Amino acid sequence: MKISSYNINGVKARLPRLLEWLQETRPKVACLQEVKSQDEGFPAEEFEKIGYQAIWHGQKGFNGVAILADGVKPVEMQRGLPGAPEDEQARYLEADVAGVRVVCIYLPNGNPQPGPKFDYKLAWMERLRSRMQHLWSLELSCAVVGDFNVIPEDKDVWSPKAMASDALMQPASRDAYARLLADGWTDALDTLNPRGGVWTYWDYQAGAWQRDHGFRIDHMLLSPELADRLVGAGVDKDHRGREKASDHAPVWFEVRD
């Protein structure tokens, strides 16, 4: 069973690339972030044409997450991250698919830092940890995947110095991510690529893609029940280099059925 995550950076703007990727790689589950579409404008019928059913949590102009499944309808379990009823940003969606609890997240960027956006990021990460602790306690086969907007270690960025002042690399961001792992979750991509040097994002500016100046911010965290079945994980890097592509590449992991 293959589960993928893809920050698509606008589901309508990248629809041809997205459909192309789905048909070429055929994940059982595809989690999307930054769909940038209101609920009523989400192009669900386009995915149905190629065999995928979807649930989504949209928002006009930015944010937005979705979960697609091949041949089955994801069973929604939670919409929006618990812990702050006043938070209306569309960043969290949770569903059951084929015996796996799949959580799709788009974690706040946090820039500029310091400031209210960074404070929101850290508070969101605390709420995420609380939810993940609850899921962990249920002893489910569970995957929390998406754009975490955290560069966990120096090995996960082309130049630590270049990103030193960014919210993605602040000690508080890294510490919050490390606490998730310390709670018992497995970083699938890092586990199978322990030396680092694996990027999932390349900025559109300054020739970052052409120079391979990237970093790893798209993560897949697995519960012990799922990590025990892990057989592979990777990045569909070539899709970043295609015409009118997202600035992220899709990431994926595979588990034994």
Automatic annotation (TrEMBL):
SUPFAM superfamilies: DNase I-like (SSF56219)
Gene3D superfamilies recorded: Endonuclease/exonuclease/phosphatase
EC class (word): hydrolase
GO biological process, one term: DNA repair
Cofactor: Mg(2+); Mn(2+)
Binding site for Mg(2+): 7, 34, 147, 149, 247-248
InterPro entries per the UniProt record, alphabetical: AP_endonuc_1, Endo/exonu/phosph_ase_sf, Endo/exonuclease/phosphatase, ExoIII-like
Residues flagged as site, Interaction with DNA substrate: 248
Coiled-coil ranges (or none): none
CDD domains associated with the record: ExoIII-like_AP-endo (cd09086)
Active site: 106, 147 (proton donor/acceptor), 248 (proton acceptor)
Cofactor notes: Probably binds two magnesium or manganese ions per subunit.
Record-marked site positions (Transition state stabilizer): 149
Signal sequence extent: none
Protein family: Belongs to the DNA repair enzymes AP/ExoA family.
Protein's UniProt name: Exodeoxyribonuclease III
